[in-house]
Amino acid sequence: MRIFKFGGASVKDSDAVRNVVNVLQQVGYENTLLVVSAMGKTTNAMEEVVNAYFKNKKDIPSKISDIVEYHNGIIFELFENKQHRIYQDFRVLIDEINGFLVWNKSPNYNFVYDQIVGYGELISTTIISAYLKEVGIANNWLDVRNYIKTDNSYRDTTVNWERTQKNVADIDRRVLNITQGFLGSDDNNFTTTLGREGSDYTAAILAYCLNADSVTIWKDVPGVLNADPRYFKETQLLNNISYREAIELAFYGASVIHPKTLQPLQRKEIPLHVKSFLNPKNPGTTVGKGMGIEPKVPCFIVKKNQVLMKLSSLDFSFMVENNISEIFKLFHEYKIKVDLIQNSAISFSVCVDNKFGGLEDLLQQLKGKFKVVHHEDVSLYTIRHFNTQALESLQNGHEILLEQRGKETVQLVVK
């Protein structure tokens, strides 16, 4: 069985949805399961609904209206029959969003986030499933929340592998199936999410549980590149990458592959292909066992909007295990993701990601116990397999706040 994952860019409008059909017709869709993300920037639009719910409820109708208008435009262009059931099915999903916002009593932002934002995937797969049937491609629409079970750590859940494996065994492999990325459900059947960009992880979870032959992620790039073309002018396609190397790149923040995606695939040696939905017959990149990296060129990764903190003790005593363990306990408490650490005898520097917004409260806690200097809105650059030329290309013109290098990797925090 094959798992195909289509991201938001690959289903962003009616032409993109038609292209999904083109891809399936070119590469085949027998014994295949499709994992599909929300259309275009719908996740961002859903986040605006959540923010309006907590900050200014009178904005909710206009935010939802934008989502309805966007998707209705796609539906209108895909379905000639304007009485098609898809209009009713779409309306039901929108009514569910509005209904939740009325009856919800929970003040927990992360809980509300998961219940609302997940509708992006439910809507996209409902539309695409209907369109595939419209053009003669029979398929089963699956609610992934019935299969992937998690804990209730909303917005960043942990998969219950035993229950998920048991549920996934019930999927009918004889037909084309389509389901949502990014989503799961907890013991109370509330929706949970696997973290932003978690659709790749969904594909890997299902591949692991189904003992799939391969996973293919369809992107708007030729495959895995040695740098993000949004930030670097000259990029090269990586033809083959080992699991180990890909995990390293993902760990440092390479955006093509979700950090959690590779681990279940590696355990069962399921190859991962990253290919272009614009040129589906091109080979793209293959991630597999023992392939190293080919060609072996410097790989550039950048993480924007980071925070660099330098902490030192108030009495100039050493920064040792008890101090550092206390700091990391606070990082965990405020959901601060650590991307780089460096310490000396009396100071401890750390570059972190404040994606859950806990920085201000964290700083108040830290300043009560340590001397703290911090820089916001810095960038963390990582070069794997660096050479002198690659390093100089980043150092020139940048104010370097921190540098750390090992045998294969160098990292720079720049302002």
The count of helical stretches stands at: 13
What percent of the residues sit in helical stretches (DSSP H or I)? 25-40%
Q: What proportion of the residues form beta strands (DSSP E)?
A: 15-25%
CATH class assignment of the largest domain: Alpha Beta
Question: Could you say how many structural domains there are in total?
Answer: 2
Helix-strand category: alpha/beta
Q: Give the N-terminus to C-terminus distance in angstroms.
A: 47 Å
CATH homologous superfamily name of the largest domain?
Acetylglutamate kinase-like
Secondary-structure element string: EHEHHHHHEHEEEHEEHHEEEEHEEHEHEE
Sheet with most strands: strand arrangement: 3-4-2-1-7-9-10-8-11
What is the residue-mean pLDDT, rounded to a whole number? 93
CATH topology of the largest domain: Carbamate kinase
Biggest sheet statistics: 9 strands, mixed
Q: Work out the radius of gyration.
A: 23 Å
CATH architecture of the largest domain: 3-Layer(aba) Sandwich
Assembly type of the chains comes to single chain
Number of strands: 17
Low-confidence stretches: none
Which shape, going by the Cα principal axes? Answer: globular
